[in-house]
Amino acid sequence: MVIKLVNRFLAGEYKNRSDSFIAAAADLKESKDNVIDLSLGDPDIITEKSVIKEAARDAEAGYTKYAHPRGDKELRQEIIRYYRRNYGAEIALNEMMVTVGACHGTFLALAAVLNSGEEVIIPSPYFTPYKGQVELAGGKAVFLETKMEDDFQIDPEKLEELISDKTKVILVNSPHNPTGVIQNKKVLKQIVGLAEKYDLLIFSDEVYEAFDYNNKFYSLINFHQHKDRIVILNSFSKIFVMTGWRVGFVIAHPEILDTMQDINEGVCYSAPSISQRAALSALRQEKQIKNEIIITFKERVKYAWKRVKENPYLSAAEPEGAFYLYINIKKSGFSAEDFALKLLKDKSVLVLPGRDFGDSEGEFIRAACTLEIKELEKAFDRIDEFMQEQIGVE
């Protein structure tokens, strides 16, 4: 017998949730056989086979128990070597914590630093979970609009206008999901200056750090003299195509990490031990794995951007990193949600409308370039056909 959950048992803030685009799209997608899915940032490439085999050997060798709550020591030491090798940065063992992906790390870090009602300034568009993570941690999300005509660069003057006596954190994501842009070094210096001036923390989401197609990325790990107010969020999910392994890490002041560790004892205690061993193996093969993946995604992203530029009713900022296109569809005459649903219904191509990324005007869709170019070609051929049928685009 199936018992329907009575609404009164739900927490008040969740009782009046509206159906999301994802819910409607899931039903449509289930009814079709040939959907090209450009919705989620989950690469089609599987984890390097040698990493999988090494993790299996480690499991057989006994790495099936709880890991240290701060993370496998060998893995943390290897991450230290990674930052020394790639950035010339020196990180102490107690300045790092391995987490169950970057989202887990972001929430724990927010929970560790936010008092009730304190504000986190988030440039918009933004990675969808940020708002909910801030609110779950007891804070308030304050959004700073960035615009496509400015290549979605943060305007430090407008940022400063949003700083109040309740502001605690500025959250930066570069390379950026969903726009694919990279914040330039000058802007980052100004943001660090504001954090110093107003005694704020900066959370820097650098999950896509290696996807840097124009050699523009500048990690906040480089601001050594300000490291006590900088929290670096990173993950193995994207660059090592290990999304399902759920391994990330946070670099921060030891007192922040101590508090994160205390909070996490009531959440999941530690990241999966076997997954951490896989991450260790991946780091030891860093150049071999990364180089091939970066080349693959650069080709895909550049191809997709070329197709967008060829359509007079679509536009996007140049994707400098990550593997997404944030496409403006305003000239189509559709709202983003209607565009995405009708595109799925008529042409079996699934993209995400920008609403969940902060697009209040309904002008943008996000396409994830996580499939082979031949599949991207089919997808954009269908998009072109869709546009021609709907508004006569040749």
Instruction: Provide mean pLDDT, rounded.
Output: 94
The level of helicity is 40-55%
Order of helices and strands: HEHHEHEHEHEHEEEHHHEEHEEEH
Structural class: alpha/beta
- Profile the largest sheet: 7 strands, mixed
Number of domains: 2
CATH topology descriptor of the largest domain: Aspartate Aminotransferase, domain 2
Strand order in the largest sheet: 2-8-7-6-5-3-4
Shape: globular
In the predicted model, the low-confidence regions spanning at least 5 consecutive residues are none
Strand content: 5-15%
CATH superfamily of the largest domain: Type I PLP-dependent aspartate aminotransferase-like (Major domain)
Q: How many helices does DSSP assign?
A: 12
CATH class of the largest domain: Alpha Beta
Give the SSE map.
Blueprint: H1 21-30, E1 36-37, H2 49-60, H3 73-87, E2 96-99, H4 101-113, E3 119-124, H5 129-136, E4 140-145, H6 156-162, E5 167-173, H7 185-198, E6 201-205, E7 230-235, E8 248-251, H8 254-264, H9 273-284, H10 286-310, E9 315-316, E10 324-328, H11 336-347, E11 349-350, E12 352-353, E13 364-368, H12 373-391
Parallel strand pairs: 1-11, 3-4, 3-5, 5-6, 6-7
Antiparallel strand pairs: 2-8, 7-8, 9-10, 10-13, 12-13
Helix pairs in contact: 1-11, 2-9, 3-9, 4-5, 4-8, 10-12
